[in-house]
Amino acid sequence: MNCQEFESLVVDLVRGEAVDSVLGTRCWAHASSCSRCAELLLDQEKLTAGLEALATRTEQILAPERIERALRKEFRAHEAKLRDDAVGLAFASKSVRPVGMASSRLAWAMAAAATLLVVTAVTIAKWRQGSTLPSMAQNQTAGQNEPAAPAARQQPKPQGAASQQHSQAPATKKTSPSSTPENTRPPLERKSNSKTHPSNRVRQNPDDVLATDFIWLPYGSGLTLDDGWAMIRVTMPRSELASLGMPASPLSSEQASAELLKADVVLGQDGLARAIRFVE
Amino acid sequence: MTDPKAGNDHDLLQRMRAGDEEAFVQIYRSRHNAIHSFALQMCGSLSVAEDVTQEVFLAFMRDVDKYDPARGSLSAYLYGMARNIALDFLKRGRADVPMGEPGMETASRLAGPGDPLSDLTRAEAVESLRRAVLALPPHYREVLVLCDLNEMDYAHAAGVLGCAVGTVRSRLHRAREMLLRRLGARRAAGEHAESLKPARCIP
What we know:
The structure holds two protein chains of two kinds. By secondary structure, chain A is an alpha+beta fold. Chain A contains nine helices and four strands. Helices cover 50% and strands 10% of the residues of chain A. A four-stranded antiparallel sheet of chain A has the order 1-4-3-2. Chain A is rod-shaped. Chain B is mainly alpha-helical. Chain B has a domain at 1-97: Orthogonal Bundle (Rna Polymerase Sigma Factor, Chain: A). Chain B has nine helices and no strands. Chain B has helices at 6-17, 21-43, 46-62, 74-92, 102-109, 116-134, 138-149, 154-161, 165-195. The interface between A and B is large, with 35 and 52 residues.
């Protein structure tokens, strides 16, 4: 063994670790023959003794009792928190059903609810559309099956034109045969009650036969009737159809001017005509 | 190295996980002094050693499920935590308050039996050695503290530090060389001071 090998093993030798008996014997033999290595071995043994003394000194310093008390307190708090969390988790697991049959039942229920919602929405939309512009079928049914309101029957027809308001509002203005919807703008007190169903107005004159459904007028179709509306009956020459954006009459201009048509005009709150239907 | 307390640890851990405070306290009492000594030897400050000890067992209590017996003994796990926390303290500069702490003074007086003069000398030497240990770079210091001050074998220390046995061995050799050099220089300086005698007295 040379000095370099001894130096690499001296710590293990002093510690009694990783050095077998044969290697240990060789180390000791080298140290006995080499004064430098012997001194190194002695220094290492002194160092080991000093470190043992330091370890002994340190081991006598104990951790204070207050650490244990603090840890005990913290342990109790920690366990209490864990219990609270466990209760919270249990509550949450009851609230949220696991995936499985229960969740599929829930999905079916949600689908049924969504379907019901859609059907309800469509029904309401159709009802609102119907309440704004009643279909001819509804009016005919209403006119044929239900008796007309007495007040409407007693209402005198103006010559050639019958001004129809909703049932609660009296007629206040007569319309001339040549009047256009703009000219027949009703006063503000004619503002209709939006709760009144328009079919009620049809009942006022059961003798009328409705010829057409309501037709949106080109300049008024983009406006709403949400704020209220009124319907008036007018007579107008056939030649005025073109001014309303409707197909021109095949008759000659004189004949068309002479032929009068009876029509119901729906007016918005602003007095502008929105739609028209023709009555025979 | 097998931990002789491993079987008992298993039961204590089971009870501790079930919320048994006394089981936790038993684990603490069986290891807190070793952890405290390790922290004191690493940091050189009583207050830091107490903080490290408390933090080690707090972290262990809160995350007891992180300990996997298959990966090592409970002692190695706790030493590893103490090492990491102590290194954090060292990085933050909360360490190396070597003198003036009452516990240390008491320990110096308790250094050994026998002749008071000899004890004093020995205590001074031990204090010099302690300072030399604290002056070592941390990765050499931790190996020396584990292997020489806490009597761990290489394998166990390697498990605590998470490195190879060969690394532990070479670092320990290097740490002891550094200590000897430092103490030898001090000794040489002392011998040199003694050798300086006045040539003549100047009245």
